[in-house]
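Bug #77: duplicate submission created two jobs. Keeping one. Sequence:
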Amino acid sequence: MIEYKRWFYKGLVGLIVAIIQFGCSNDESTNEGVSVFWEQTGCADPWGTGANDTEAETTNALKLFLAGEDISVFKVNVEITSTAQDCFACSCLTGKTITVNVAESDVAKMEELGFYLK
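Kept job's structure:
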């Protein structure tokens, strides 16, 4: 019976180690990439959307724009992170932050486009 318990605990420890290693993998195909962000403007974003567009319209336009820049997008999230600036110029901030997860190899391109590391 003691031998059975020893075998059981060794197997359990092995399973836990395997789960931890898989969960901590750096392979980009198993994670969500590197997060970069952009502060949305009223109408000056290079993908052509702004304050009056829906989140879906902004996300789709952004994905198309980045595909044209040869950047693979894992995930896009738009959220309100502050109050909008009280002005109507295209460069005024809407208070929304757009977070994009991309491959680590695309981070430099994203920074050239004006995104910041999160």
